[in-house]
Specification:
binds 4-nitrophenyl phosphate, 175 residues, alpha/beta, 6 helices, 40% helix, globular
Length: 175
């Protein structure tokens, strides 16, 4: 992983770090990232210091549970996805410290929505946290893929979310 520039984070222990994962539909990649991040934070007994959510740039599936294929693949890994789809909104830039798009298209849409330069600095692509980012410079949309597409997304997100957790913890310790 090359040098990662993070936006300002809350002072250690002052309040939870707030992370929003974003994809297009908010039924496959970002709710999976949301569920995986919740499970990592729970494994560390750190729930009180994290707020995690997800949203979509599109509005096709508002109110729906995640795609049944993603739910099945996640469940095999012990993760229940119960998020209800919502669309990203400008206020999310006030409410979250870090906004994590899954691909370049989501990133461009978020940059257009960001109300200020400081808000835009909160956008850090998911692939930046993934060890294999030389190979996967985005999290591929699994919607039209087979089972292997969903498994690949979960592998990339598990690795990326573990790194994100450690990077923020280390960042806070050094702050
Ligand atoms: P996601 O996948 O962005 O990872 O949730 C998609 C889900 C639905 C659609 C596209 C991508 N769609 O076109 O409905």
């Amino acid at each position: 992983m090359d040098t990662l520039f993070l936006p300002p984070m809350p002072a250690p222990g002052s309040r939870p770090v707030k992370v929003l994962f974003v994809c297009l539909g908010n039924i496959c990649r970002s709710p999976a990232a949301d569920g995986i991040m919740h499970s990592i934070v729970a494994e560390h007994g750190d729930e009180a210091m994290w707020e995690i959510d997800s949203a979509g740039t599109g509005n096709y599936h508002i109110g729906e549970l995640p795609d049944h294929r993603m739910r099945i693949h996640a469940r095999r890994r012990g993760i229940e996805l119960t998020h209800r789809c919502r669309q990203v909104r400008e206020a999310d830039f006030d409410d979250f410290d870090l906004i994590v798009p899954m691909d370049g298209s989501n990133e461009q849409n978020l940059r257009r929505l960001a109300p200020t330069v400081e808000a835009e600095a909160k956008i850090v692509p998911m692939a930046r946290f993934v060890d294999m980012s030389f190979r996967y410079d985005h999290i591929p949309d699994p919607y039209y893929s087979g089972a292997e597409g969903f498994e690949l997304v979960l592998d990339l997100l598990q690795n990326g979310c573990e790194n994100l957790y450690q990077i923020i913890k280390n960042h806070n310790q050094n702050a």
